[in-house]
Amino acid sequence: MQIGYKLAAEAFGPGELVRQAVLAERAGFDFVEISDHYHPWLDNQGHSPFAWTVLGSIAARTERIGLATGVTCPTVRYHPAIIAQAAATLALLSDGRFTLGLGSGERLNEHVVGRGFPDAVSTRQDMLREALEIIRLLWSGGYQSYEGKYLHLSDARVFDLPDSLPLLAVAAGGRDAAALAAELGDGLFATEDRPELVRHYREAGGTGPRYAEVPVAWAPDEESAAQAVLETSRWALTGWKVMSELPNPVNFDAATSTVRLEDVKEKFACGPDAAPYVDAVQSYVDAGFDRLVMQNAGPDPDGFIDFYTRELDTRLRALKPRQAG
C-alpha cells in the first residue's frame, strides 16, 4: 500500500502548494496528488492555480515523492494532445515519478472555454474514451492522426517521450467507467470506498493500482476540524452527481447551505484522535484500494502533516483487508 497527500489547489496558492509537497516528502508520504481545476468549489477557498506549473515546480524541489493529477479532464478545457505532451514532459522532469489521473470532468471547470459541457454522462464517457485513445496513440511515438466522433487529431507528434511512460489512472464512479479504466488505463481512481468499483475494475481485467481519496480534517479539537470543513469543504458532501453538474462556486454555496456539522462528522474523520482516521482508511483498504490519498480539509496543513508522521504513518501502513462477513 502507498499513502499520498492531497494538495488542495482550491484552498492554497502555488507557492504554498509547493511548500506542502516538500513537507510531505520529508514526512514520508509516497506521493502527492493535486486537483486540476480552473475554479475553486467555493469562492471563500480563494485559489485555483494552474496545476501543471505547480507540478513542474514540485518536481524541481523534490527528489523521491511521486506526483499525480487527481484528476485531469482531457476533453473540453484541454485537448488530449496537450495533456499527452504535458504528461510526457513532466515524467521526464520528475525522473519517472508522475502518474496521470484522468476523468470525465466537472462543469465547474470545463465550461469556462465556451465550448459547453455535455449534459449526458454517456457522452462524457465516450469523449474520455476518445481522449485516452489519442493519448495512447501519441505516446506510441511518431506522427499520428485520429478521427473520432467528438475529438480529432491531425498529424501530431510528441517529440519528448520518456523511456517509461506515465502510469495512467482513470477515474470511475460506476461499472462502465471502471471497465474503461481496465481497458485503456493502468490503474483505477475513485473518491468513495465502494468495493463494487474495484470488483468491476478487476472483472474487466484491471490489474493495476487502485487510487482513492480519504476525507479527513485535522485540528486540535474535533469541533474546530468539523467547522473548517463546513466553511470551505462542505461541497464534498454533495456527491458526484451534483459535483459534476454545477457551473460555478456560487452554485455550490447555495447547494450546500443546509449542510450541518453533524453531516460533516459522518463523512470526515475529524480532530486529534488517530482512531477515526485509522477506521476511515481501513474501510478503503477493505474495499480493495491500495493507493490512499489523505485529503485533509482541516485548517492547519503543517499540524496535519506532523500528526500524520507521529500518529498515523506506521498504523496505516500496517492495515490489511478484513475478511467480509
TrEMBL record:
GO terms for molecular function: oxidoreductase activity. SUPFAM superfamilies: Bacterial luciferase-like. InterPro entries: F420-G6PD/mer, F420_G6P_DH-rel, Luciferase-like_dom, Luciferase-like_sf. It comes from the Bacteria. It is an enzyme of class 1 (oxidoreductase). Its EC number is 1.-.-.-. Keywords: Oxidoreductase. The keyword Acetylation does not apply. PANTHER family: 5,10-METHYLENETETRAHYDROMETHANOPTERIN REDUCTASE (PTHR43244:SF1), PTHR43244. This is TIGR03557 family F420-dependent LLM class oxidoreductase. It comes from Streptomyces salyersiae.
